[in-house]
Amino acid sequence: MGDQEQYLSSSWSSAITGDHVAEIQVNNFACGGVAISVVVCHMIADGTAFIIFIQNNAYPMEATLMALTMPLLRSSRCTGRSIVFDASVIASLKVKATSSSVPTPTRVEVVSALLVKCIMAAFKAKSGIEKPTFYTHAMNLRRKATPPFLESSMGNFIRLAGVLCTDDENMELAYTVRKLREVKMKIDDDFVKDLCIDSSDEREQVFPNTIMLMDTKCSSGIEARVRLDKEDITVLEQDKELLVFASLDPSPIKV
């Protein structure tokens, strides 16, 4: 990612009074290609609002939308991979993850569960120790309110739903999906009404280990943008179970 940062608009790292709420940088290449980077203040828009703004106002339908969250990640030891799951693979994962507790797992739940399982295995392979792992989902609260907010509503409508997986727990897909569903079910309309937003914390936030899920062009598959420590990525991309279900770093034209 280091070589790509020169193409990102990043002249400011935190907002102060009088700053622009967004910056756009256009990069023209000798081959005739164009890359447009956009940075939006998080006080104005969360990831959902940002993506909808880009898709509806800035890019033509045939453009490739990639690596939206990378400007937030500044750890020099981290690197990213694109991991793509097609529709047929996701269907098979849903079958594996189905249980009496969660008879209809979602695409996001099964892909997230597999990635978490494989990433935990990578951590263990590198350190030799199976450590408890806490992972979170950024949930879109727009759909949780009654009546729901418009998907295009600007602002921060996100809440992290966290799941703790300890070393003595069964990390099969059905188990992980059930744990995630239990946490998600606690975030309902009453939760949204009672939510108090605290904007007083001004510490810089850096998230070196991240997974960003996006629809593929066919809208039935999922592209996962995974960013981990370089050593962890090296182990992850050799995970046999992951390679059965996913394609690593396919051409953006085919995603």
Describe the structure in your own words.
- This protein is of the alpha+beta class.
- Helix 2 crosses helix 3.
- The longest helix is centred in the middle third of the chain and has 21 residues.
- The two termini are 19 Å apart.
The CATH homologous superfamily of one domain is named Chloramphenicol acetyltransferase-like domain
Q: What's the helix count?
A: 7
Q: How many β-strand runs? A: 8
> Which strand-content bin applies to the residues?
15-25%
What class, by secondary structure content? alpha+beta
Question: What is the radius of gyration computed over CA atoms, rounded to a whole number of angstroms?
Answer: 19 Å
Shape: globular
